[in-house]
Design goal:
The complex is a heterodimer. By secondary structure, chain A is of the alpha+beta class. Chain A has one domain (18-208). Chain A is 56% helix and 14% strand. Chain A has helices at residues 20-51, 56-79, 89-102, 105-114, 155-168, 170-176, 185-190, 197-206, and strands at residues 117-120, 125-128, 132-137, 140-148, 178-183. The termini of chain B are far apart. The chains are: A alpha+beta, B alpha+beta.
Chain lengths: 208, 74
Amino acid sequence: MAASSLPEASAVYWRPRVDAARLVRRGRTWTATTVAHTVPFIGTAGLLFGLEPLSFPVDFALLAHAWAIPELYARRGANVVRPKPQGDEAPERVAVGLLGDLVGHDARELHAQTGLVMERGKLGTWLVGEGGALLVRGRKVWCYCVQVRHPDLPSADRIAHLLLALRSDEQGFATVANLAFAGSPRRVRARMRDSMRPALDRAAKTQR
Amino acid sequence: MSRLIRMDSTGHSTLAEWTAGDHEAIERAVAEFRRELDSGYYAMVTEGEGHARQVTELPLDAELVILRRPIAGG
């Protein structure tokens, strides 16, 4: 990918430019935050139950919280690639044609099957959707919410917008995008639409 | 034949086409290019799979120049 700077990055000048080290650090911080949100609930539930077994309804509520918080985060991550309702068929067909010209045969097939375009970068393997992108690196996935804010654009054009931006400046793209979740691909996969899961499987395979 | 296209609600629209020797067509393409950039579009040139470059001048030798809108974190 080219090293030119994404102009949109100037709109988020306060954010440090994302690089591999920063990405890993951000992933670890995310995991630590999730643990910090979860462990107190589990600990309190255990402690309460130890002191008074009849407190089990409260313990149960605490454990439900401990389960729900990571669940909500992972769902938020999966939602970044959730497809939006499609508009007219004719513009969509034209847009798919252009997107097809931008990617190779495999990516074109994967897009037809899953609605996501796979793109290998220096930071990892990207899956680009119309309203966000997943970055698979090692055993983790970073879910980014990023989009072109013009609701009249066909879905494939939205993907093409993101793909071109990503290709021109991968680090700038990751800087501009808002991180919605970082964690295990397994957790995101479980909350993705069935039809999209093969894309995540394929991306994860490139990182093994 | 080189093309300047803009991604829009129709999928994409071809705004200009030109060939190396056709000065009139090139002038029209450059004017169109400038107008779109002034209205907030970014121009991209693909450089093979996995590569793209943003341009601020119309690259006359490029086969395809694509105009895109700015992106933002959601």
